[in-house]
Amino acid sequence: MMSRLTNAKLIDPDQALACVLEHAAVARARTVALARAVGLVLAREVRADRDYPPFDRAMMDGYAVRAEDAGRTLPVAGLVPAGDARPGAGRPRVEPGLAVEIMTGAACPEGTEAVVMKEKVRREGDRVTLPERIRVGDHVAARGSECAAGQSLLASGEPLTPLAVAVLATVGLHEVDVIPEPSLAAITTGDELARPGEVPGPTQIRDSNGPMLLAQARRAGLSRCRELHAADSLASLAAVLAECEDTDLVILTGGVSAGRFDLVPEAVVAWGAEVLFHKVSQKPGKPILFARRERAAAGAQLIFGLPGNPLSTHFGFHRYVLPAIRRRMGWRSVLPEAAHGRLAAPLVIGADRTLFVPLRVEPEGRAYAATPLRGEGSADIFATFRANAYLRLPPGEHALDADTEVDFEWMGERR
Amino acid sequence: MMSRLTNAKLIDPDQALACVLEHAAVARARTVALARAVGLVLAREVRADRDYPPFDRAMMDGYAVRAEDAGRTLPVAGLVPAGDARPGAGRPRVEPGLAVEIMTGAACPEGTEAVVMKEKVRREGDRVTLPERIRVGDHVAARGSECAAGQSLLASGEPLTPLAVAVLATVGLHEVDVIPEPSLAAITTGDELARPGEVPGPTQIRDSNGPMLLAQARRAGLSRCRELHAADSLASLAAVLAECEDTDLVILTGGVSAGRFDLVPEAVVAWGAEVLFHKVSQKPGKPILFARRERAAAGAQLIFGLPGNPLSTHFGFHRYVLPAIRRRMGWRSVLPEAAHGRLAAPLVIGADRTLFVPLRVEPEGRAYAATPLRGEGSADIFATFRANAYLRLPPGEHALDADTEVDFEWMGERR
């Protein structure tokens, strides 16, 4: 029953990440309602459907006038509200010697050269006295001055922020082609896990990896996520994996080491996946498996086997699963965001692998102060759950004084 | 029909924000499923239900032994997998001269002094040769070494990150008391808006504020959001506001200036709200209204009237609505996150009000380069939709050279 993959070559964290990104292809576009598009990436260029503004638009409440009437007192020949739907013949016209009252956002009447702000005139009854100086174009946004009909507004690949959503709504897109989010299944393994709701037996623990992974996935913008559990047998793993045929990303936790109960590698191979790496020279999370499984129609599935310790699982998601999700979702920049600051406490640590140390980073004026969080090993999340960043250190022994300047990468949880 | 509030005093942006935060109370706690809790704030202290680890836990795959047996070759008296559910009498014991094979995460058998990693022994048949040096406690996480039963783990007010969710799952909480997210309604106003799906008439435009506000709310973590529309009449506004009786945050866009079609202030007062401010000395978004309406049982509603121009609406949400949401949700830090960088282009701008200039900020090595985005006024989002930060400048005339160091605040959209 020993996995055929026990002696897989140890690769370094950067090779592992490059391998994940090489196999994480951008997903095929899908059409979604505009209200669902925020946070996703646009999959098709969007052009202006008409000139913007679509008409000469008043930018202030005031009076539409001719520039030559500066300083004069004129009769007010009507009012144009925004959205005035009267047919052309029924609308007031601006002519020399005539002013038309107008509201912000309204289409300027024919003949308008400028809009004078209402704060700059003296109104008495139905007459208005204009200021001494009026320039042609004052407070008028000319038709097409923001963009012309047919002009490219958003390129394929553009992230759909709220402001980008406003542009799409402006040009009349109620549906939009986007790169959809992947679906995800988190499969917990291990006979030591009590079933949800059960009181754990004396040698059992509760599952924390399933809820944590779903929380990480949700923070990454995924909504189609579910949690499954497999017992420590190949038959149980096979049955649970068979439920994941339609799932884009499959994460297994536990059972991935080379122990005799660590059946995940064998189960993944039996499911038809190709294992691309199995061990990474890093701490935490050395026994981490990455595999790819081809499907006829729906594209390749990505499979991650993460160690069962909560911090190792968290780190594995942060460093490998999250960039794969972002690549699939068409993000231009898929790596965790980096920053730098000073150590707020000394750090003495060593390993023959690349180290990733959980940090609690707090703002300190315009800079950051980073406190290393050390627990009783990678199963201890009580001492480390307030971490919001990881510090990377090369293999070897390290004795860093407080105030040492360090680069770190955010977990995406700044609080 | 002119609003009674036309001559409201102009206050500065910091007074306005302080007023919003003074009236935005932390919401009452609610119990939610753990899976829904990520991103919310914990409303009640959480303590450990038992010791952690709950038993002396093997931290490696290997052999449970006595330290005195270092260097000796011993018979292997059985195997303890993680979660071994055999009753005490059926489990192997460690005694001098006897080793027990053990898996990571398993409860150490009675008599265990240390676990020796399987990589450090020579196994032949059912006998194992131990290394020359074994220290008591090696690779054993002692019961209670991470935390003791009853110990406080998370305080009320703790943000529920994925790692915090893992702690809650570990101690058996399937439901958790949190500060819930507020519900939100975005009410667009204005007869110039074409109905969704309609082709706009020659003087009409499409609504972009509604979809943008819902996108901003969604990015802020809200899920109970809806969009409503009111025509430019007090009757229509009253009817739509009446639908918002159960909504915590009500945002109206448009109709908030002092123009004769700007009926929002009057409608809000008629609905029974107290207007707390109506104009802020800022650009964009000077005509902004903030009001509060008491409800008997459900606590006060907060009402924001934002100008109809998309950038003014976006900025009003960013600067006033978002901090109010965060305060209601119990966040410790409610202001937009600040950072600093250099201007990538010169900026010449002036106003007699505090200026907030949209910026596109890109990383530049370990620093940031910020490009000011200027459109044809605050209705022009084509030129500015890629903004991801705001630069604040005091009232007055500014001529900033490229490379000037500036502080800015993130919109929360880093891409």
Oligomer kind? homodimer
Quote the beta fraction of chain A: 25-35%
Task: Count the domains of chain A.
Answer: 4
Main sheet overview of chain A = 7 strands, mixed
How would you state the average pLDDT of chain A, rounded? Answer: 93
**What CATH architecture label of the largest domain in chain A applies?**
3-Layer(aba) Sandwich
Structural class of chain A: alpha+beta
How far apart are the termini of chain A?
45 Å
Helix share bin of chain A: 10-25%
Structure, explained:
- 2 copies of one chain form a homodimer.
- By secondary structure, chain A is of the alpha+beta class.
- The first copy, chain A, has 4 domains: 10-28 and 181-328, MoaB/Mog-like domain (Molybdenum Cofactor Biosythetic Enzyme, Chain A); 32-51 and 147-179, Molybdopterin biosynthesis moea protein, domain 2 (Alpha-Beta Complex); 57-141, Molybdopterin biosynthesis moeA protein, domain 3, CATH 2.170.190; 338-410, MoeA, C-terminal, domain IV (Beta-clip, Beta Barrel), CATH 2.40.340.10.
- Chain A contains 6 helices and 28 strands.
- Chain A has a 7-stranded mixed beta sheet with strand order 1-18-20-21-17-15-16, sandwiched between helices.
- In chain A, β24 (354-364) and β25 form a beta hairpin.
- Chains A and B meet through α2 and α3 of A and α2, β17 and α3 of B.
Topology:
2 copies of one chain form a homodimer.
Chain A (H helix, E strand, L loop, with lengths): L9 E2 L1 H11 L6 E4 L7 E2 L3 E2 L9 E2 L3 E4 L7 E8 L18 E4 L11 E4 L4 E3 L2 E3 L10 E2 L10 E3 L7 H9 L4 E5 L4 E6 L19 H11 L5 E6 L3 H9 L6 E5 L10 H7 L3 E7 L1 E2 L3 E7 L7 E6 L3 H19 L9 E6 L3 E5 L2 E11 L2 E6 L16 E5 L2 E5 L4 E6 L5
Parallel strand pairs in A: 1-18, 7-8, 15-16, 15-17, 17-21, 19-24, 22-25
Antiparallel strand pairs in A: 2-14, 3-14, 4-13, 5-12, 6-8, 6-9, 7-11, 10-11, 18-20, 20-21, 22-28, 23-27, 24-25, 24-26, 26-28
